[in-house]
Amino acid sequence: MFSIDLAADARLFPLEIWHAEEFLAHMDRGREYIGEHIQLPDFVTDLDSARAFLSAYAQKTAADGGRLYGIRVDGKLVGGVLFRIFEAETGNCEVGCWLEPAAAGRGLVTAACRILIDWALRERGMHRVEWRASSANHKSLATAGRLGMKREAVLRENYLHRGVRQDTEIWAVLASEWPEPAGR
């Protein structure tokens, strides 16, 4: 299977519909932590909804409109990254992430998103990569900063999450701002 090393014990791989049982088990382990700021665990609650979510991303991938990748540590699914939006015709996309608490703090999301962003900007010729996160999600916002993104806006109380209106921050990096790979 295709995968990319993130660390000695961690791999990035395409998350596909046949991973539904593993994906659901992962959501069950991290449901509260992951769901603190995003709705993913509220949508993936059983095997049918796990399959539906993964199927939706398979369709997005087939239409060149999004992509979904898992992060495994020691062979266990612990998180993921995605192109939630991928608009090749406009040159704009949005990258996002989630992670179980056991895998947090290792830089895995930063490394995985760096791979996605580099691919989008260098291989696909995208112009702009966005990152959207709740203003309360300090870890996610710190990741955007580590990726060299700039904070551009705050959408005040635009996001209803578990009955509470939250602000969303928009961060972005442009192709002209993305650093050249080492050794070039």
TrEMBL record:
One Pfam family recorded for the sequence: Acetyltransf_3
Q: Where does the sequence pass through the membrane?
A: none
| InterPro entries, alphabetized | Acyl_CoA_acyltransferase, GNAT_dom, Ribosomal_N-acetyltransferase
Question: From which domain of life does this come?
Answer: Bacteria
Task: Tell me the Gene3D superfamilies matching this sequence.
Answer: 3.40.630.30
Every copy of the N-acetyltransferase domain together lies at 15-180
Q: Tell me which SUPFAM superfamilies the record gives.
A: Acyl-CoA N-acyltransferases (Nat) (SSF55729)
Q: What is this protein called?
A: N-acetyltransferase
